[in-house]
Amino acid sequence: MTPMQIGIFTVGDLTTDPTTGRTPTEHERIKATVAIAQKAEDIGLDVFATGEHHNPPFVSSNPTATLAYIGAKTERIILSTATTLITTTDPVLIAEDYAKIQHLTDGRVDLMMGRGNTGPVYPWFGKDIRQGLNLAIENYALLRRLWSEDVVDWQGRFRTPLQGYTSTPRPLDGVAPFVWHGSIRSPEIAEQAAYYGDGFFHNHIFWPASHTEQMVRLYRERFEHYGHGPADTAIVGLGGQFFMRRNSQDAWNEFRPYFDNAPVYGHGPSLEDFTRQTPLTVGSPQQVLERTLSFRDYAGHYQRQLFLIDHAGLPLTTVLEQLDLLGEILPDLRAGFAEGRPAHVPDAPTHASLVAARAAGQVEQAGAVA
Amino acid sequence: MTRLVVVSAGLSNPSSTRLLADRLTAAVVGELGGPGEGVDVVHVELRDLAHQLTDQLLVGFAAPELAAAQAAVRDADGLIVVTPVFSASYSGLFKTFFDTLEQGVLDGTPVLMGATAGTARHSLVIDHALRPLFAYLHAVALPTGVFAATDDFAGPDLDLRITRAARELVGAMGVGGSAVGERRELVDDALAAVTPFEELLRRSRG
Questions:
Q1: To the nearest whole angstrom, how far is the Cα of B83 from the nearest Cα of chain A?
Q2: CATH of domain B2-204
Q3: In the list A91, A122, A362, B122, which could disulfide-bond B85, CB 3.0-4.6 Å?
Q4: Residue B195 and residue A185: Cβ atoms within 8 Å?
Q5: Considering the entire predicted model, what is its pTM?
Q6: Residue spans per domain, chain B
Q7: How far is A196 from chain B (nearest CA, A)?
Q8: What ipTM goes with this model?
């Protein structure tokens, strides 16, 4: 059992290294993604998650092929998404794909639902962006039924009806993959996660901590409101971002050109301002450790911490070095997260824990009948 | 407490834009009964926020000082806005500030518009540039805008227009924003009073 899952998530961007002017090829970047995931397992991380984009400069289309391939090359790490586009992907396809990966990887998969941040992707998949929220709600409601019910009769607004339809393969051990819902500023998504008792993930990076705090608080309150348990037992995940070297000043010097030219925040705020205003931490391993452990101050005890480490044109060798350093502080991170964690705060959900919870529920039900 | 916020986009220091903003502010405060008479005045000097405004365009969130200015504007009972005229319109800095506001923030807020320029040939800028902007933002743009060319600061007429505009603003603030129409829901409102999921499900069915 792992109380707190620690891992990485990737956007899959193809970005020019500003220090060399070199842009990796799609092939190099795709292979690098696999190498990074394997390294993540090697250093003892719990989760590798990939984003989903369907346009240049990204290589993260078709995340299920990537995850299945990585699944075959790894033994232990949980494969996840950050995020799966629940708006534009047919839930019938999501149900099949992730149940299949569940079987192939013996349950080492979960998903994070998101609405994406690229408007034009909607028409590429025949959807209407004005219906983004409604698509997220209807598609997810259908996805749940496809996993939980063997035979589904269904009719909705955004796809053809289903009559006597059975999604195959059925989820491994009859337990659907755990679902997180990711959102930065949409209370509706925190509400959706709370309603179903699913996990809520806040991207956390690129934004002031106050956004994270507001959304996580809302999700926790509503989780309790819907009767899933006390607010502090809700399942919370956070993003994070760091660049570390043994010597803090070396980290600042090396990361600065990548920061200054990064697609997301380049040519904007100074690195100093941005590290102050967002959870980005640049410095020594000890500083990354301390900053990460401080996220609990406003998010409460949580279950999953994912770091973005392979973006902004950072070369693969650098990313792998960052993982080595993360591996070194990993025991301290785990110990730190365990410190002061009340016993009733649930461990991070896994396939095994969901199977056990279902079995316990059945026993309880049988007891109630007797 | 009446909350009056003054947004000024002058670039030099001192600037004639700030000078006009100060005279408008003094007139409004006077109409409200004088300083300290339940009036809280917040000055937002956009020059000081220029870097943070650009940063927000690039990264999508406001640095603390800019966020405080945006919150003051959101909570204002009345607004005085003054821009210098650049290339026949409001300045880019002035527009950028309003570009960074969340949609709905100015719904129903009475706005006294002012503009400064070197010559009187720009005098229609308030009606041709500022008024459409504040109409789009669903603010209540008052009938009298105060345009001041350099020459105007020498004559007595400017004061007459300032007084008339100030009375209009105070009158509109007395009416209150809610009389004009409901304000669109802001993210903070939605976070404070979340729509229950059953309702979201119902809406999703169309």
A1: 25
A2: 3.40.50.360
A3: B122
A4: no
A5: 0.93
A6: 2-204
A7: 10
A8: 0.89
